[in-house]
Amino acid sequence: MPINIPKELPAREILEKENIFVMDDERARTQDIRPLNIVILNLMPEKEKAETQLLRLLGNTPIQVNITFLHTATHKSKNVSKHHLDQFYTTFSKIKNRRYDGMIITGAPVETMEFEEVNYWEELTEIMEWSKTNVTSSLHICWGAQAALYYHYGIEKFELPEKCLGIYEHTIHYPTVKLVRGFDDVFSAPHSRYTDVEKQQILEHPDLLLLASSEEAGPLLIISKDAKHIMITGHLEYETETLAEEYKRDIQRGIDIHIPEHYFPNDNPNKQPRNTWRSHAHLLFSNWLNYYVYQETPYIWE
Description:
By secondary structure, the chain is α/β, with parallel strands linked by helices. It has one domain (14-25, 32-294): Class I glutamine amidotransferase (GATase) domain (Rossmann fold), CATH 3.40.50.880. Helices cover 32% and strands 25% of the residues. The protein has ten helices and twelve strands. The chain has a ten-stranded mixed sheet with strand order 5-4-3-6-7-12-11-10-8-9, with helices on both faces. The radius of gyration is 20 Å and the shape is globular. The two termini are 26 Å apart. The model has no long low-confidence stretch (mean pLDDT 90).
């Protein structure tokens, strides 16, 4: 949240140059406050885990947030009960006449398929098209980020020689952009995916900014210049044990997979991994909610 200070206070100019969010008395007096309405399209197979991870980050701000969970009508989830979906979720047809302050589209385990081969792709494109006029800002995660880059900006994904799996260091390229306010120059983030997008295509696209990337893991944070779409190719929402659980699951399934990089101490899967990305995950979601949703969304949708 911003600090409210007199408009002529000398410190104001210094703080603004340091990218600190300040608000003067005049704006503070006219600012209306209401809860934010966020819709989450949860495409993850283990929906309850994804719910917890996202809500933990959305709930760690002073802003009141109302959540609507969405599932696809054209795909039957196998890892969650019908009772859970009926009780806590709805479908796009029931909310498409509403407007939301923010939207999150999660990852999904379909990344090696062509987008058009995914059985809910048509439904997803309808939702993404709807979001252009009915959502203030959308946050896209992992495969959801690749889907957004493809649908909105024509950027294709490509398959990697081996899975990008581990905790990687990323460098901030535009430190004055509000989404990365408070970030360290270099920070860690988890990745778990078989595909990637070309860095050069993002750099050359007139509507996109590459905010952070890794020499090992490629692009991580991408934002559209109108701030309508934010793409995260990794999983900052992951808990400490998530990569370990995925790794052990793949081993049990007989998948030839390498140990997650820079994750287990001494690359020993029997040792407890350390969480080195938690603070930046909270900061990213807080910045998104504050600067791209709360500060930008209309008080009353017309």
